[in-house]
Amino acid sequence: MLTIFLSVLVLSSTHQIKKARDNVRKFPDEFIFGAATASYQIEGAWDEDGKSENIWDRLTHADPCSITDCSNGDIADDSYHLYKRDVEMMRELGLDFYRFSLSWSRILPTSFPDKINEAGVQYYNNLIDEMLKYNIEPMVTLYHWDLPQKLQDMGGWTNPYIVDWFADYARVAFEMFGDRVKYWITMNEPREICYQGYGANTKAPRLNIKGTAEYMCAKNLLMAHAKAYHIYNEEYRFSQGGIIGITLSANWYYSETEADIEAAEEAVQFEWGQYANPIFSEKGDFPPVMKEKIAAKSAAQGFARSRLPEFTPEEVEYVRGSADFFGINHYSSYIVYRNESMATYHEVPSYYDDLNAVIYQSSEWEHGASDFLKVVPEGFYKLLTDIKQKYNNPPIYITENGYSTYGGLVDDDRIAYYRKYMDAMLDAIDEGCDIRGYAAWSLLDNFEWMEGYLERFGLYEVDYESPERTRTPRKSAFVYKQIVRTRELDWHYEPDTDVMTIDEGY
Ligand code: BGC
Q1: Separation of 41 CA from ligand 1 center, angstroms?
Q2: What residues make up the domain containing 425?
Q3: The pLDDT of residue 13
Q4: Is 282 marked active-site?
Q5: Residue 269's domain is classified under what CATH number?
Q6: How confident is the model over 382-427, as pLDDT tens digits?
Q7: Does residue 238 carry a pLDDT above 70?
Q8: Cα–Cα distance between 265 and 276 in angstroms, integer?
Q9: Is the residue at 506 inside a domain?
Q10: What is the DSSP track for 64-93?
Q11: What distance in Å separates the CA atoms of residue 157 and residue 128, rounded to the nearest whole number?
């Protein structure tokens, strides 16, 4: 604990010295800036114009107070009706791109392509066209957690048929929007989908079936991702000319002491290597350490086979290389240790028992409103350089990074977070990491999953008391705008206005 803590302190003070010397830092010429959101978190209109129920509608309606403030996304930011205001905000910020997700059950109310909901398609057409009018590139996530409930009733991501269900849905999206969308992301954060939704109870569908369901989900999700990639690659890439990748949640894992270095690396392999290794490594497949550990534990526990499903050699090849870029959502870092007490620490069987380590965060780290959001910018640098080294320097888009508060327009702590994390990212770029773009999470406050509307991530504050869901720029919006406009990180810039305008050209 002490070793890691001291090394973090030493490293961050070298960063301080550098910052003091280097007040204004330039972003590369081709670098693009954006902001991100997700369908369930902002759209509302949960049952309007033919949309059917998804797993978040079901969870929030069946068990309202499983959400901290007993709220739901029925109306959320009402972006279904207020999308023009959202685009206006993108123009105010001068964004190059905007990352949003499609609601599967809005486009395909039966979950399948037998019936395409025209009103749902129209909504996304309107949004995309409005953005393109002002040269704002759409970056579209196909799946950001809102699975049609019907598919969940049939096992959701644990049912291998989902590979086809997802591929059929992806094809409809390419067909409908691919003439104008040039950046596609298949999945947002597989770890959160599989571990939190199936192996724990911290995201819908809250199955909490430990040590099995999350691994079945992982294999099916990777196959579904790969199938969508191959469809795009073979049927649409030539005529539509876009790129397609996947977004992983990737945190950094420090070892508590030197003795825990192996445990920390294994945590990396379990937490995001599980999804990165099959796609981005030279050999493909789940990380060897996961395969070995889970097979050994499963045998000792009396299972007939490893709880981690195997990929056949053909499947390994099918998934390997199935992304044009590595999308990264990064918020924070963790500390890892392993000792004798592990044997009784975790439930058996479970994912964390398989990893056989404890992951935690230092209570001394500065933090935002969200429990997990500790401010450790150096971890971002470590993560990015580790990805460069492990996977042959893939093109990277930071598809989410941001900070939570409990609200308020003067958000200096959010501004400090953005500056520190962008500074760490620029250090990684200086090391040769191929980072091509950055999206702030989030354009505006939104439904923060199990935390409802309590934790706020927006550059714009949303007034949930007003029927118009009034959006007001926070101080951080002015600072981000300045970064986007100048393509520079200036530690001393102070906005001299609180009146937001649209600059010429937007
Ligand atoms: C998710 C977002 C979420 C954000 C902040 C990411 O894990 O993709 O949907 O709001 O983190 O918690």
Answers
A1: 9
A2: 2-489
A3: 41
A4: no
A5: 3.20.20.80
A6: 999 999 999 999 999 999 999 999 999 999 999 999 999 999 999 9
A7: yes
A8: 14
A9: no
A10: GGGSTTS--SSSTT-HHHHHHHHHHHHHHH
A11: 29
